[in-house]
């Protein structure tokens, strides 16, 4: 079956200027994948006739489906509709159905429609009007020379509803699409290159219709298997078999699948043991605790934390010995062990985790350069510490340290289950 290829284009100077974040293309790509349409390119252009015409010319060369978002307002800076008229050699005309909808939209809110509002009903003559129940800017569907073009408002709420309830059903009716199935293996504690070497033989023997992608992010690597075929049940069975084949090679590093997050996996292990967790943070400044409490229900397994940024707090609140700090320093195995043990005891938790290091970009020494970070995990049975040697970037070091300390907690909990 011939694959259906899509290109997604966002229109708006505000995106190029960095004034707003484009979330539309990510969401659209995910939704198209669900119905077997593969996105081959995403791009953003400004609110100019020349830019829109150029990107449409390029997209037409490689895509069966072109989706545009943005530039559909009634003001002069929104030029998408006029440019589409030029591209398709047609004219704007006031669509009676669209006008009736926009009029009703304003009247239902106790407002009179103005001429500027009415311009929302001005549509290219050759498009199919797609009603927008969530706003005033309608969607537009064009079918030209075998390529489908869809123009949607840029407001994410309106775009998503139009796609989900209007455009997706229309696409499924118009195109005969293959089945695309994704499976994500979530790993932590192994670098992308080492992971690739470990599974090289397995990867080389994957069937042609199943592709593998490596998606690294802050100490984690997601392995994404993507299969294409005609039978979703058979395809899922094939991918599951491939997962079972690779697991013996990487099992110690696998913490979950698909939408699993490391923090939620740890939460499940804590719940399984009916344990409470406490945190002691120096270099991460409360980031670890924030990663725990961003999930609803975390009070059932998280008792609290101490941000012991100064040595004074380490001693007075966590019970770190002054002589430990004097002899080994705040960034040391001895100190981070006492921090983890201290917070566990002080807050009455079953397990305590701790971080202490030099996040940077300043503060390093030849003996302890920036990126030198100690983490620890303490239970009544054991206290385990690990040395991390990270890079010079503060934010990255904080996020990576969070990942590594959660993984140490995960390993400790598995060891004691």
TrEMBL record:
Q: Pfam families from the entry? A: CinA, CinA_KH, MoCF_biosynth
SMART domains, sorted: MoCF_biosynth
Coiled coil, from the record: none
The residue ranges of the MoaB/Mog domain are 7-174
Q: Which family does it belong to?
A: Belongs to the CinA family.
Protein name according to UniProt: CinA-like protein
């Amino acid at each position: 079956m011939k694959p259906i290829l899509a290109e997604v284009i966002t229109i708006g100077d505000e995106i190029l200027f960095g004034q707003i974040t484009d979330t539309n293309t990510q969401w659209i790509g995910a939704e198209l994948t669900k119905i077997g349409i593969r996105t081959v390119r995403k791009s953003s252009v400004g609110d100019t006739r020349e830019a829109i015409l150029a990107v449409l010319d390029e997209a037409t060369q490689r895509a069966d489906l072109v989706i545009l978002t943005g530039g559909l307002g009634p003001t002069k800076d929104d030029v998408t509709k006029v440019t589409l008229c030029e591209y398709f050699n047609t004219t704007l005309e006031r669509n009676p159905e669209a006008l009736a909808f926009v009029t009703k939209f304003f009247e239902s809110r106790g407002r009179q429609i103005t001429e500027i509002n009415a311009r929302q009903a001005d549509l290219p003559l050759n498009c199919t009007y797609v009603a927008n129940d969530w706003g005033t800017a309608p969607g537009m569907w064009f079918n030209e020379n075998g390529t489908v073009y869809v123009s949607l408002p840029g407001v994410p709420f309106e775009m998503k509803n139009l796609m989900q309830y209007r455009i997706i059903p229309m696409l499924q009716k118009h195109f005969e699409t293959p089945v695309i199935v994704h499976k994500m293996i979530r790993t932590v504690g192994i670098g992308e290159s080492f992971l690739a070497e470990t599974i090289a033989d397995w990867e080389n023997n994957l069937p042609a219709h199943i592709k593998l992608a490596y998606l690294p992010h802050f100490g984690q690597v997601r392995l994404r298997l993507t299969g294409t075929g005609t039978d979703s049940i058979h395809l899922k069975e094939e991918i599951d078999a491939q997962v079972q084949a690779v697991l013996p090679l990487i099992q110690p590093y696998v913490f979950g699948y698909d939408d699993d997050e490391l923090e939620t996996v740890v939460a499940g292990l804590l719940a399984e043991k009916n344990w409470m967790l406490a945190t002691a943070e120096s270099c991460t400044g409360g980031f670890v605790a924030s990663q725990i409490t961003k999930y609803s229900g975390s009070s059932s397994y998280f008792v609290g934390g101490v941000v012991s940024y100064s040595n004074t707090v380490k001693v007075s609140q966590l019970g770190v010995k002054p002589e430990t700090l004097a002899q080994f320093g705040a960034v040391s195995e001895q100190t981070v062990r006492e921090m983890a043990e201290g917070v566990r005891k002080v807050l009455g938790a079953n397990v305590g985790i701790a971080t202490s290091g030099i996040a940077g970009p300043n503060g390093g020494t030849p003996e302890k350069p920036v990126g030198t970070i100690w983490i620890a995990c303490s239970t009544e049975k054991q206290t385990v510490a690990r040395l991390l040697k990270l890079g010079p970037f503060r934010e990255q070091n904080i996020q990576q340290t969070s990942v590594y300390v959660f993984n140490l907690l995960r390993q400790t909990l598995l060891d004691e289950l």
